[in-house]
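Fold this sequence, please.
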Amino acid sequence: MAADSRCAVHLRASIAGLLWLAAGEEVLLLEQAPDDEPGDPYCWSAPATVAHISELRGQQATRLRCVREGIAPPVYPQVDHTALEVYAAFAETRRAKAFELSRASASALLDELHATADHDLLDPAPEPWLRGRQLWLEIVVRGFWHPLDHISEYYRSHWQAERGLALHRHAVETARYLGAARPARGMAHYGLACAWAACGEQAAALSEFDHALNLNPDLRHAAARDADLRPLRI
């Protein structure tokens, strides 16, 4: 087996592990939340949170399908999560529907991951929606980093910051266990830095942020506009 093929096999396996970690956390979140949980743009309900995660993950599956078929992917707008109209689009989602959306979108993204050609995963691509990332890392963003960020935010907004911290610590250890690529492990450490900052532990947050930058220097751009890291004055 050629080196590039071996790299792609390991990359797919590690990404699949990260995707299912996030999907599993969505199940745990929904299992413990009441079906009629109230929410608003600043404190999302669990079903609304998972519905939003599922929509963006489904968009990523659509992009991969378009890449595979050689057509231009749809352009998706940036999302302001505190906008009333954004929350309203998911506010009426019930738990049963959120479970269904989570399963369907996670399965669709995993299927497209395995169907994507090695060179599409690994070669730099000029598409604007990738923002300079390789395709595989964009899959990690929408399938792992983004879901855990929202689930952690749910815990923080529901006075469970320690649970959010435990979630990100688990994510760091899982990424290490899976042998995930450095940029993906950097994203896991970045999430843990944000969780430490939310708990008021600035020294631990700075340490994790340094780990994140060492693994993925591009995260400095995200940190410059991230309210979670504002207390660190990075």
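The mean pLDDT is 91. The two ends are 44 Å apart (CA to CA).
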